[in-house]
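Session log. Operator J.P. requested a structure for one protein chain; no other inputs attached. Running the standard single-chain path with token output.
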Amino acid sequence: MAIRNNFKHTFYASYGGYFVQAIINNFLPLLFLTFQRDFSLPYDKISLLIVINFGFQLVVDYFSAYFIDRIGYRRCTIIAHVLASAGLMSLSVLPYIMSPYIGIIISIIIYATGSGLIEVIVSPLVEACPSERKEAAMSLLHSFYCWGHMCVVLLSTLFFTVFSVNNWRILAVLWAIIPMLNGIYFCFVPFPDILDESKGMSMKELFKTKLFYVFALVMLCSGASEQAMSQWASAFAESGLQVSKTMGDLLGPCMFAFLMGSARLLYSKISERFSLSAVMVASGALCAVSYLVASLSPFPIVSLIGCAVCGFSVGVMWPGTFSLAALKMPKGGTALFAMLALFGDSGCSLGPAVVGGGITLFDGDFSKGLLLALMFPILLVVGVVLQRKSKATD
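Structure written below.
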């Protein structure tokens, strides 16, 4: 069957979209020490780069609800990939033709805008495509972010080992090829009519719905539970086990991403056997236990196992929240997915910030900092229980 009539290609292109998101969010942090060395950037300015990336994605999450339906899903999807590719390419050029810091910021703004659009568009796109098992499709989709995260770390580490980190500009251009090709792919795949003629809730209607705030809480805690550990896993592994930076990255964020992706892939295979709400509650409970183990164990290797198990526990949270919200609020439309993405990205910023603040407050004690993040999986379980007791909206 031709690409234009086969929704399997829509799924494949959507998987590529989440792979692109992984490149956007995980490539730059690998260069922080290089930027510090080459451009003499202090840590506070480097930290601001993370805020700018997620901050602009939050802005796009919010405003996209007002323009995606007007412009059209296909056009916005292609624009998103063009921006992602352009931002990565400009990263290899702008810091060398203007103030390095300003050049990096401009590049981040360009590709963060693309990444924010991808987050808002791809999940409802997959949700609207013909599929017998919506939860399985959503879980499989989000697993590609994890595989992308792993590939970015592993392939970039291999590139730096073989060709030296001094050639990072070449690697930035190579990574930019992927969103370029996936954007072309999206020009040809079919899009469900429901997305082009959306009659979903307006923002005003959404904010008047009490159930929305329950899902907003669950989504915020999903992002916070995931990123609180993910962002600090490398430093925790390096600090706890006294291993090299490369090995710390492999044992920390790589193992976390692998198990998170494995959980999403596993659930996509067995989703019809279990209630999604029950799986979400179990995930929250396991996540809480993993934070306790990582924080309180006197043995570094056991703490590291806790970090890895945390990756498995958070796997279903983010895609599961999208699926539950779509089921309970079927007329949510673009506004619902945009606002869930906004709260999810807010959690991605809040979780690591809470842990970082705790580490600073307790004089560099990683364990006590991580322990503060325990509140997020607990609140997630509360939110999931509340939505189970709530009726679906009309």
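Operator note: Residues 260 and 312 are 4 Å apart (CA to CA).
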